[in-house]
Amino acid sequence: MLVPTRKHVELFCFLPVRDLLISLAYNLVLVIGCAGHAFLTRKLPENFNESWYIFVSVATTSFLWVVFLPTYFSMFEAYLQSALLAFCLFVNGTVTLFCLYLPKVYAIYFVDEDDILFGSMSTAKTTVGLSQVAPRSSSA
Questions:
Q1: Confidence (pTM)
Q2: Which of 36, 65, 108, 120 has a CA 20 to 30 Å removed from the CA of 21?
Q3: Total domain count for the chain?
């Protein structure tokens, strides 16, 4: 009885698991550093608080890598591993772009500069009269 076979040759470089995990350790250090930064900056004023965007980016990165690693090592065909790696990197890059870069672009192009710079100053001027402000002394 004939056994059906398919004509398929797969050529790929063998990379030991240890080398892959060493290269991913750098990403892990970055994720932990960003999570620590987001945790330390969570109580900043609203105008300077970007910890929510950093948290979403770090959480997405962590979730993708937790899902990626077991799936990557359970696949036997190299082209599926490559496709999975490309997809995970694409999703991670897109989420990072939307969470960290686009709010800054929005602030540059769509937020009025007067609201940012003088929004808190205008309330200070109304509560403190001009007569209470000490004049500058000129020192020569």
A1: 0.57
A2: 36
A3: 1
